[in-house]
């Protein structure tokens, strides 16, 4: 039973946020989230066999898309949406009509803080997204906008206004988000450390963005949240969220937007199979050694003033500089373009991207 | 009474670390630190009236320097050591013969963690300094070298070795380290949030380094830990540690060294007078608006391979680019050179700085 104190009587941004869930199974996990998610609209992206029926607990307001729906809605452009990989979730980001997205995996449950109180993860993400980020200078007391905190001595006053927050990256108690080699080496490691902090990932610094527990402002950064080509027919998996995170961070840095990480925690219930993961990851593990220097050195021209323009430019640089690593990156660069074309078709008022502070739709 | 569990039976680095304390009063505060500090050697830098006698509780092993001592030891070069300001502490860094320094203010007491256990701040600093930093890529589970943590999925393997840690910046419970304007606006704000994290300040990101609770590796970064010209006869105060922090961070980034911040906390007992602070700070508050962009854009040439060379080069750039803000920066640039000259005189085997991983003394 949820602690009623942690459920706001009027859910924040109730009509401005969609919850996107990729899944291959019945969504019983939603029962535990009912007090927190029920006021919101869900977009369920069914992966795998479209003839299977996914059961959603009663009382939730949702729309569900399976592969047939994706193919019908996007036509030939459906090729940019991964199949048999949770990367398919980004289809939900594209067809949402809301300003904010929260996405969560179906093996993630409500965590408790050290006092034993249930954590309303969604509420914390919304708080993170609604207050500014501080990417230009590090604040040693973490997020200066949290209650009981502020900017410390020596923090330049001109930087205290901050910048709009585009991304809120939440963490995981219990099963940490480790790669296959680390899973294999430390099969019993559990994350039990509750770090009571939210902080801005500084400008110019890349981070590994995990898609398990993630919020973002669709109007500010949506078109960059493409989870790439993974799974069926592709040479890698488990790099979908990483790819999206690297692209997103580079574009946020260019456009002066902020990325926060830290709270909230969810309870990650089950480690995926490290042997299966190793097979999905092994190419990514050596490719990323070239991808990181690439993203660290990306420069976007000044005339890239929208997320779409930045993303198209990035796709060109991917083709030019990563294509030589493997033909996969040529294909990925093309898919990046297809993704933006599909995004613009389904979000015709591109004006939203040009006016990040407006409410245009 | 300290919890005996938090006092290691063999104190870490007992013969390799000095504790530097700047003070103008009797050091009764050491009583509370006795279980943690007594095994170590103290360097006490007495500020203000040298004829005053500072009482040190019995049983501590210490050397004490007042202004007369500093003048006698450094001769004309004593001009680079501030008077009537806790910036004088850096004299202690210079004359130490140890590899590591821990410095603490005399209004800082032993804090407790959320379980009520006393925090052995020094032990945590030593742990921070003895394990690597990760400045090139952000790890979302914070310090990957802490027990129960690791690098998360998507963290490049080639970066997991990390780099040597030069600085460990600790935090403060109770009175936060706010500037005068924030103190005036929020006189009752107390820091009660215990954030159980240590993290590396990413490469290219500046941070406000506070000198209240600070550890560093003297061999790796000592000559950059100059606390500038503050206090008596100078136009500003309370920017001593900030100055040292900006210089240190830029040099650490250049030399491939790491800076950690977070744990350990100390209990900061008393807020200084905000009106007095405002008087000391007000020039710094607007100067820092130009200092930060300056430090953000500093480039050190490749042939600056030691901290001393970096620091001399930085002093030139300070003179050239900041001298026009105020003649104070000309004077400061000269003092930076004097500081290095004095450092080298008192640390004749400069070889230590050339071989950061060696044990040369």
From TrEMBL, chains A, B:
Q: Which UniProt keywords apply?
A: Cell wall biogenesis/degradation, Glycoprotein, Golgi apparatus, Isomerase
Q: Where in the cell is it found?
A: Golgi apparatus
Sugar attachment sites are 153
Q: Which GO terms describe its cellular component?
A: cytosol; Golgi apparatus; plant-type cell wall
The species this protein belongs to is: Cocos nucifera (Coconut palm)
Q: Which InterPro entries match?
A: Nucleotide-diphossugar_trans (IPR029044), RGP (IPR004901), RGP_fam (IPR037595)
Q: Which family does it belong to?
A: Belongs to the RGP family.
What does the record give as the reaction this protein catalyses? Answer: UDP-beta-L-arabinofuranose = UDP-beta-L-arabinopyranose
Q: What class of enzyme is it?
A: isomerase
Answer whether the UniProt record assigns the keyword Cell wall biogenesis/degradation to this protein: yes
Q: What biological-process terms (Gene Ontology) are attached?
A: cell wall organization; plant-type cell wall organization or biogenesis; UDP-L-arabinose metabolic process
Q: What is its EC number?
A: 5.4.99.30
PANTHER family tied to this protein? UDP-ARABINOPYRANOSE MUTASE 1, UDP-ARABINOSE MUTASE
Query: What is the protein's known function?
Result: Probable UDP-L-arabinose mutase involved in the biosynthesis of cell wall non-cellulosic polysaccharides.
> Which Pfam family is an annotated match for this chain, by its short name?
RGP
Which residues bear the site annotation Required for activity? Answer: 153, 160
Q: GO molecular function of the protein, one example? A: UDP-arabinopyranose mutase activity
Protein name as it appears in the record: UDP-arabinopyranose mutase
């Amino acid at each position: 039973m949820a602690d009623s104190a942690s459920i706001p009587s009027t859910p924040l941004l109730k009509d401005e946020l969609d919850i996107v869930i990729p899944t291959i199974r019945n969504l019983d996990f939603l029962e535990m989230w009912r007090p927190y998610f029920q006021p919101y609209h869900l977009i369920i992206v069914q992966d795998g066999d479209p003839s299977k029926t996914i059961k959603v607990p009663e009382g939730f307001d949702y729309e569900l898309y399976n592969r047939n729906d994706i193919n019908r809605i996007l036509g030939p452009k459906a090729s940019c949406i991964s199949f048999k990989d949770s990367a398919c979730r980004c289809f939900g980001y594209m067809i949402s009509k809301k300003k904010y997205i929260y996405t969560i995996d179906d093996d993630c449950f409500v965590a408790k803080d050290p006092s034993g109180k249930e954590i309303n993860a969604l509420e914390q993400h919304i708080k993170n997204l609604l207050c500014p980020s501080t990417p230009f200078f590090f604040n040693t007391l973490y997020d200066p906008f949290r209650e009981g905190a502020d900017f410390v001595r020596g923090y330049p006053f001109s930087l205290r206004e901050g910048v709009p927050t585009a991304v809120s990256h939440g963490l995981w108690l219990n099963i940490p988000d480790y790669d296959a080699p680390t899973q294999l080496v430390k099969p019993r490691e559990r994350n039990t450390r509750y770090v009571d902090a939210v902080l801005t990932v500084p400008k110019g610094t890349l981070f590994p963005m995990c898609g398990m527990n993630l919020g973002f402002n669709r109007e500010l950064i949506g078109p960059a949240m493409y989870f790439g080509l993974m799974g069926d027919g592709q040479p890698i998996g488990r790099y979908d969220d990483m790819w999206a995170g690297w692209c997103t961070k580079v574009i946020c840095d260019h456009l002066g937007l902020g990325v926060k990480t830290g709270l909230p925690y969810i309870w990650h219930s089950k480690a995926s199979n490290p042997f299966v993961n190793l097979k999905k990851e092994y190419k990514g593990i050596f490719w990323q050694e070239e991808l990181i220097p690439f993203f660290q050195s990306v420069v976007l021209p000044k005339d890239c003033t929208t997320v779409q323009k930045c993303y198209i430019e990035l796709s060109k640089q991917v083709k030019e500089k990563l294509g030589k690593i493997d033909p996969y990156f040529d294909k990925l660069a093309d898919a990046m373009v297809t993704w933006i074309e599909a995004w613009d078709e389904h979000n015709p008022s591109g004006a939203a991207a040009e006016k990040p502070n407006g409410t245009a739709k």
